[in-house]
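Students often ask why we bother encoding 3D structure as a string. The short answer is that it lets us treat folding as translation between two languages. Here is a chain of 208 residues written in the first language.
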Amino acid sequence: MNYLFDQYVFDTFKLDSVDGRMDAIRSRIQPLFHHYAQQVADQLADHHLPNLPIHVAKHLRRKVHPAKNTWVAIGGDKRGYKKYPHFQLGINPDYVFIVLAIIENPINEKNIARAFRQNLSQFERLPNDLIIIPDHTQLPYIQQSEADFNKLFDRLENIKKAEFMLGRLAKVGESVLENQASTSQWIQETISDVLPFFELAINSPRAK
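And here it is in the second language, the structure alphabet:
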């Protein structure tokens, strides 16, 4: 099988019915998720982060409206991932993304935000092609070079529903998606770039 995020894969989101789109997600997209998520898990194991579970989104609550995006998460525990910092590989009608994700009011969110703010200079030195997605349910994103990290971390600390996703995205037809080797390299480079912040998040002091 060719594990490519090509036009055929993106066309999944043109299917109007819940069942039709879900069937296409299972057949077209989830095999790619399993393939690349395992590569991420192996890469993290090489950095002494073994046994991070892989969670493929199932969209079980979708009964009326078809899923607008889909993803696989690497991290958390066997029961789930949203309450922990984790990595996400996902796709929506506009782009594929690979990010460090802190979403839906995870455990220790305030201390994670404080730890990030204390290391502000590390974020400001990141490659300019990284992006920030401030809401995992929406398509808009911010270029790293234009981000106000201090403001983002203040929001993450003080607003319950605030989120922070840091990584890269690629639109259909971009060179990194043309073959498996370039896609794997793109994902692995992004994981390497954001890994220090994942470690910072999981090692931040626990709230008392």
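Translate back mentally: The chain has one domain: 7-202. Keep this in mind for the problem set.
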